[in-house]
Amino acid sequence: MPLIYEDRTRKDALYEVAQRMMTAARTAPKGHGTDNLIIAVAERDVIETIAAKMKDMVQTGEAAEFFNRDANNILRSDILVLLATKIKPLGLMNCGLCGFKDCREKEEHPEHPCAFNTGDLGIAVGSAASVAMDARADNRIMFSVGKAVKALNLLGDEAKIIYGIPLSATGKNPFFDRK
């Protein structure tokens, strides 16, 4: 029986982690029981497209210099989990957490998120990252990835706030001790 070395199974293992991360994000608690999340996984070709867009955003002045660093980081990942939220008020009418009097007034500002949208996304991102941690997969939550994904419209028009979590399994975590 031949030996199967870890480097042959690494990407499959990370893909399994990503699947569990997506499940954790989907099942994370949501305000008023309303699910406005969009969740996907990007592989090598899409990761390269996102990294190129991040670098382009720096060149055109749309993004800070650290987007180049983050682009180089994601190029060292095998899998990239993408988590986004739609912007839709939950209809709690008078909560006012978004800064408007009620949901009717908030709806006059469709690009302004409902506080529950961002809260739910944050809980989902934390749940997903905790799964990666439990699996001992190197990861980092990156809003810079989300800005590029949004600019590319990879998750569609409804994805308004997006985060990326790159995954890696190497001897040294490429997402920390960064320059």
Structural notes for this entry:
The termini are far apart. This protein is an alpha+beta fold. The protein has six helices and four strands; from the N terminus they run αβααβααβαβ. 45% of the residues lie in helices and 13% in strands.
Question: Mind sketching the topology for me?
Answer:
Layout: H1 6-27, E1 37-42, H2 44-59, H3 66-74, E2 79-85, H4 103-106, H5 115-134, E3 138-139, H6 143-152, E4 161-168
Antiparallel strand pairs: 1-2, 2-4, 3-4
Helix pairs in contact: 1-5, 2-3, 2-6
CATH superfamily placement: NADH Oxidase
At CATH's second level, what is the architecture?
A: 3-Layer(aba) Sandwich
Mean pLDDT: 95
User: What is Rg?
Assistant: 18 Å
Distance between the termini: 44 Å
Q: Biggest sheet: strands, sense, closure?
A: 4 strands, antiparallel
Tell me the number of helical segments per DSSP (H or I, 4 or more residues long): 6
